[in-house]
Amino acid sequence: MTFNDDARIDTSRASKRSGGRKGGIAIGGGLGAVALVLLGQLLGVDLSGLTGGGGSAGDGATTESLDRCADASLANTDTECRMVGTADSLDDFWSQTYPALTQAEYRPSHVTLFEDAVGTACGNATSAVGPFYCPGDEEIYLDVAFFEDLRTRLGADGGAFAQMYVVAHEWGHHVSHLTGAMAAADRSGTGPTSDAVRLELQADCYAGAWAAAAATTTDDQGVTLIEPPTDAQIADALDAAAAVGDDRIQEAATGQVSPESWTHGSAEQRQRWFTAGYEGGPAACTTFEVAGTDL
Ligand SMILES: [Zn+2]
Questions:
Q1: What parts of the sequence cross the membrane (predicted)?
Q2: What is the pLDDT of residues 19-43, one digit of tens each?
């Protein structure tokens, strides 16, 4: 999706943390070389890879604003500014949509960009964990270098959308946290109809709901933030949703598919729920209400 060059981005929904201490964090495992695996790792809400009680990786870290991203044209060329612009659009969408959906008060999330390591209320994380949502502080954590790598691997257009999709998916987890669905879910199980998969498909559905309405989100002056998606961009969106299916990722990584260990859902499930949100809005994201056979 393309930002409107004439818009002004509200940069308050994202910031960048630099200089976090890396020592003392023990998270093993390198990143997979396959882009699909890489993208799959981006979309987890699984925080089991985090260590410690939080905070220490932030020792000595400084937080800087991303005010330089206020000109929306930068969101089309600069990864950090694309994240800032996407967060602004997501906040505009959900601040209007959430109260109508739930009759409850909305609280914004916040995107924290980091390099190497970051301390969070959910523990310490390195870029190896992949971007994630922490319900403890209601923030989304994204490693910038990881994102640029993703964009390089997926190509300029598909990669740019994939980056925005990741932020929208993580903001979707924030919405499930606000509604209480995340706390109510039993996240210990796996498999195609597990609560873990229902939570992930709900985030995909919420991402689809935002994607459909992104072209209606505006800046403070009422100027449209994002141009309506083209057919090719919608096709990219569905490709991205399929690429992160557990079956595709397992197939790419091991050559075998084991549905009983799924945590995010199949390519078909992820495409279908993204589409459900795209066509039906957030009210269609009933992943915890449908029978397993309809999931
Ligand atoms: Zn997720």
A1: 23-43
A2: 765 443 323 222 233 444 455 555 5
Q: Ligand 1 mean position to 113 CA, how many Å?
A: 17
Residue 1 belongs to a domain: no
Which tokens is 132 given? 């994630």
Q: Is residue 151 part of a domain?
A: yes
Quote the pLDDT of residue 176: 97
Rounded Cα distance, 80 and 112, in Å: 10
49 lies in which domain range? 11-294
Please identify every residue whose CB atom is under 5 Å from ligand 1, which is an ion.
43, 45, 200, 203
Per-residue pLDDT of 153-198, as tens digits, reads 666 666 788 889 889 999 999 999 999 999 999 988 999 999 999 9
Instruction: State how far the Cα of 110 lies from the Cα of 255, in Å rounded to an integer.
Output: 37
Please indicate whether residue 283 or residue 39 has the higher confidence score (pLDDT).
283
What's the CA angle centered on 31, arms 90 and 33, to 5 degrees? 100
If you measure from the C-alpha of residue 200 to the centroid of ligand 1, how many angstroms do you get, rounded to a whole number? 5
Distance of CA 190 from the midpoint of ligand 1 (Å): 14
Helix (H) or strand (E) holding 17: strand 14-18
Please answer whether residues 248 and 36 qualify as being in contact, where contact means their C-beta atoms are separated by less than 8 angstroms: yes
Measured in Å, residue 43 CA sits from the centre of ligand 1 at 4
| Residue 104 belongs to a domain | yes
Count: domains in the chain:
1
